[in-house]
Amino acid sequence: MALKKSELYSSLWSSCDELRGGMDASQYKDYVLVLLFIKYVSDKYADIPFAPINVPEGASFKDMVALKGKPDIGDQINKKIIAPLVNANKLSDMPDFNDSAKLGSGKEQVERLTNLIAIFENPALDFSKNRAEGDDILGDAYEYLMRHFATESGKSKGQFYTPAEVSRIIAQILGIRYADTTSSTTAYDPTCGSGSLLLKVADEARTKITLYGQEKDATTSGLARMNMILHNNPEALIVQGNTLTDPRFKDRETLKTFDYVVANPPFSDKRWSTGLDPLKDIYERFKPFGIPPAKQGDYAYLLHIVRSLKSTGKGACILPHGVLFRGNSEAEIRHALVRKGYIKGIIGLPANLFYGTGIPACIIVIDKEEAQNRKSIFMIDASAGFMKDGPKNRLRAQDIHRIVDVFTRQAEIPKYSRIVSFEEIEKNEFNLNLPRYIDSQQDEDLQDIEGHLHGGIPCADIDALQSYWNICPQLRQTLFKEKRPGYLELAVDKSAIKSTIYEHPEFAAFIADMNAHFAAWRTKTSDVLRQLEPGCHPKEIIDELSENLLAHYADKPLISQYDIYQHLMDYWAETMQDDCYLIADEGWKADTYRITEKDKKGKEKDKGWICDLVPKPLIVSRYFAKEQEAIDKLTAELESITASMTELEEEHGGEEGAFSELEKVNKANVAARLKDIKNVAARLKDIKSDREAKEEAAVLNDWLRLANEEANLKKRLKDAETLLDSKAYHYYPKLTEDDVKTLVVEDKWLSSLDIAIHGEMDRISQSLTQRVKELAERYEIPMPQMTDRVAELEAKVNRHLERMGFRL
Predict the structure, then answer these.
(1) Quick check: helix, strand or coil at residue 50?
(2) Is residue 303 a contact partner of residue 293, using CB atoms and an 8 Å limit?
(3) For position 28, which CATH number holds?
(4) Where is the N6 adenine-specific DNA methyltransferase N-terminal domain (predicted)?
(5) How far apart are CA 404 and CA 495, in angstroms?
(6) What pTM does this model have?
């Protein structure tokens, strides 16, 4: 059975987190990621001559497994595994596996390291074969673990990871995908952290490029080197050191320059000048612009980037929003940067994206190539586009795509993006704060005083829905009629607004056209998906599918192409990605497997079966619809009987009700109570007692009859479900490859997307319905009528109070 990508990520994280104990996540990550690294390079490069990574004999993961349970396991890992790997590959120091302060001592350390190694012994974690060339499953798993460790590490420990979504934006807006890159093309990150940002730039290039990175923290620079190897960039040059005080990439006495420079430096670094005299900076990073303030290092890093770019170079830097508007020396630097034309664009991001801080940040895009001719700056305010993800905010796929599309096209969109001239910036004294140039606030829903006084919906509010009337011009006349000049009223009953919209010929035609539009994409896409074969590249698949879908819905009315795109990307992440990796590994195979669990005694218990690629409901829906229909009918009957029993218990459950004498309502107690009633009735001849006994007995007998029916239905339902489960299970071997393709492509993937995208049609109609109803209710009763009604009700209340003896 192939390893599902999502299961790899989640199982690694949950297992490692479970073993962490009291250790801080920022420390524990070092051990987990080193183990992941050793496992990967052992599978990939051990015993391979001239491999980019040398795995010395006796220093592979299998040699580490041999140390499990040994009393000196930590010391042996250091000496036999870590040291040879570090020396053979000139890696930086790795964490101490014999550190009792972090891993415990004695038996505790032995158990913790033994269990940690066992996590990576899973047979499915065999990376000797690259199942899908170009899809770095382990590299992505590394990113996944880094993100989770960053989340767990707290506010001060998140600097080692830049969210992948932000990295992707930077990599794409640089335009490297469309450049003529070669192996001599260079990309540099002066504060590379774990290297994720640098790797995203490399991924965007059409050819292999040369990567350079410098990181101040020794441990983090080691993570970056491992990350490069895991992402198939072992030749990347990562060095350790303080970039500002001791830049390591130089051409003699000047800074080395690069084609692309990207960075996510520490926000507002208060120690940036420690060990550095900016006035005597031999690299002349500050001389042309000004010296950043001693307690704000943001511009120090940005100016280092500017100095590190070739004359045709392009760069991008993540900085806090304050750099756009803070005064004094920063204002002078900002003035100089704008005047020199180095700033191509500014992208405002949502707050709370980054693990080290909750403040909003921006991306400043530097482009030296067109600097002399630049007369404007392109600005985007993307602060409103995000989703909540636990304690942090996170950019969605559609947010990323929209930012990149708009920036690439330099498209001006109201409340989102603008081309701002230097003249306008100069009028604002070179303050680049985005709200000065882009009003991203939502329009206020204004109240119309005359409408409230005299009734009637203002025509202006209905005109604001013009995007709907462009598609359905006659629908407006159907919904509204003139009340007086400038004001309308509903032409239909308020309760009929929804049905009037849904059933109107123009709206029905619009929905039919949109359904046909999706059907056309579905037919074309079905043919493409059926051609997938083992060895296919899942990342290429989703890139092609998503771009085709986005283009297919470009310029369609009333619907956002990015919302449609997001539905596909969500479904990809939830389901389709794992399916494509299964197909890439095994082909169109619908293999079932049993699910077992161990009880407290260690005995395995069969919990049924499952098929990942073709779940049971798909088989049942297509081949056993009649059997499922019969089960659904039995289920409905059972629910009806159960509801009748509950209703009976509630109706006769009071203090003197038929069930009052029962401690618990069940068949045994009800039968016993009926027997008692019969015995008492035989002894007593009182007419009243006899009547009450018969009434109680009738209720209990009704309940008992229903209980017997319920038990019978439960048995029949269980038998039917067992039989259907068996039929479905034994049907899988009969499936042909074409059957599997139909079940997966049509019944699973495209049907799910069909439902999701049809939901957008419902949202459109619901939005119109809700707005029309809201406006109708807002101006339904004029203020004078409301006042009269209030006075009338007040008079009634006063009369009631007087009758009760109260006088106001």
Answers:
(1) coil
(2) no
(3) 1.20.1260.30
(4) 10-120
(5) 44
(6) 0.86
Q: What is the DSSP string of 726-785?
A: HHHHHHGGG--HHHHHIIIIIIIIIHHHHHHHHHHHHHHHHHHHHHHHHHHHHTSS-HHH
Alpha carbons 474 and 497: distance in angstroms, whole number = 14
640 and 534 housed in the same domain: no
722 in a structural domain: yes
pLDDT of 72-97, one tens digit each? 999 999 999 999 998 888 787 788 89
Tokens of 33: 């990621």
pLDDT of 155 reads: 44
Tokens representing 305 are 């980037």
- Give pLDDT, residue 156: 43
15 Ramachandran zone, left/alpha/beta (phi>0; psi -120 to 50): alpha
Half-sphere exposure of residue 263, counting CA atoms within 13 Å on the CB side? 32
Q: Which helix (H) or strand (E) holds 303?
A: helix 298-308
Whether residue 749 is found in the same domain as residue 668: no
Report which of 279, 316, 315, 321 is spatially closest to residue 296, judged by C-alpha positions. 321
C-alpha span between 747 and 619 (Å, rounded): 10
Beta-carbon contacts of 557 under 8 Å, excluding residues fewer than 6 positions away, are 467, 470, 471, 510
Claim to verify: residue 698 and residue 761 sit in the same structural domain = no
DSSP letter at 489 equals E
Helix (H) or strand (E) holding 570: helix 561-571
Q: DSSP secondary structure string, 638-690?
A: HHHHHHHHHHHHHHT-STTSTTTT-SS-SHHHHHHHHHHHHHHHHH---HHHH
Residue 129 clears pLDDT 70, i.e. is over it: no
Give dist(CA 607, CA 337) in Å, integer. Answer: 66
Exposure letters 251-288 (e unless 16+ CB within 10 A, then b): eeeebebbbbbbbbbbbbbeebbeebebeebebebbee
Domain that holds residue 806: 456-584+739-808
> For residue 376, what are the β-bridge partners?
421
d(CA 539, CA 536): 9
8 Å CB contact between 559 and 514: yes
Show the tokens assigned to 70.
């040994």
Q: How many domains does the chain have?
A: 4
